[in-house]
Amino acid sequence: MSHAYRAVGWNRQKRIYDGVLALGVLLYLAVFLGVGLLLRPNATAETLLIRALGTAAFLLLHVVLSIGPLCRLSPRFLPLLYNRRHLGVTLFGLALAHGLVSLFQFHALGTLHPLVSVLTGDGAYTGPGPFPFQPLGLAALAILFLMAATSHDFWLAQLTPPVWKALHMGVYLAYGLLVAHVALGILQPETHPVLFALLVAGVAWVIGLHLAAGWRERLADRPLAGADDGFVEACRVADLPPGRGHVVTLAGERVAIFRYDGRVAALSNVCQHQNGPLGEGCVIDGLVTCPWHGFQYDPANGSSPPPFTEKVPTFRVRIDGGRVLIDPRPQPPGTRTEPAELPEAAT
User: Fold this and answer.
1) pLDDT tens digits for range 273-313
2) CA 285 – CA 125 distance, rounded (Å)
3) Is 72 left (phi over 0), alpha (psi -120 to 50) or beta?
4) CA distance 195 to 208
5) Sign of the torsion angle spanned by Cα atoms 38, 43, 44, 50
6) What are the residues whose beta carbons fall under 8 Å from the beta carbon of 48, sequence distance 6 or more?
7) What is the pTM of this model?
8) Are strands 263-268 and 340-341 parallel, antiparallel or unpaired?
9) Which helix (H) or strand (E) holds 317?
10) Spatial CA neighbour of 263 closest among 302, 237, 229, 231
11) Could you give the CA distance from residue 235 to residue 323 in angstroms, rounded to a whole number?
12) Closest listed residue to residue 227, CA positions, set 316, 121, 345
């Protein structure tokens, strides 16, 4: 977390993360090329390189899409989420290299403009024959480019988090286009059952993880019982682990409840950085800390410490006989709302 924009704020963890990522990509490409030469000695080096780059990008896309739901299912995967954008930019680099080598290999030396050749050169959109697969890959590459180009926090701030998030949800459209690109590009000319099984397994993995994470989130959205004066019983004091968050849903909005220093406070569960789940974070030095990228908020007023300016709504809290009661009507972002004091027996 930094109040100033820098190209990349590398620290020791980021260097290790990126070093492991780069080493993994290089090892994959080397193994793919070596095995490819052994199994298909007649294949050209360019063809093997195109397939190595393409499969590396496609596998990395599966990893990127798996991180979010895995973090919803277990906090052990949060270190992967911390630098997920590095994975996304690496994915785009591999996909771009795959596209450029393919463009030169198959389209650069013809009479047509290379991009025109890509759009018209590998089949017919109607009628008999194979359906063109290269335009699908080109469309996916364009989406990945937009995501990589806007991956920095500067663009997050300029576009605003909702717009930025909506733009980056385009990764699912890119994934669908690439699944079709691979299916039509590989499975039309080669009907080997192993290739088909691998593609189906990858799609099933991504869909299954998202369904499992969605089911878990649905369980957290159960309606809560009402109480007097418009307050709602959110949980028991005993349900709140000291220094950690607890998430409930009030009036359709997720609220993060924190017990810290003998007090209980409630604020919006949505971090203003990348919509991260504040309730899955913890209290560090008296500040609620988002588990995704470390953005912090004062639990009493929902404001980030200076010089940061992020603010989230707060909620009025009351303790009654071991019950935590919350007014479901949020206070404006940054409004100071006194935390509820816990009885000495509960602290």
Assistant:
1) 878 889 888 898 899 998 887 889 999 999 998 888 889 99
2) 61
3) alpha
4) 20
5) negative
6) 32, 33, 36, 37, 40
7) 0.75
8) antiparallel
9) strand 317-320
10) 237
11) 6
12) 316
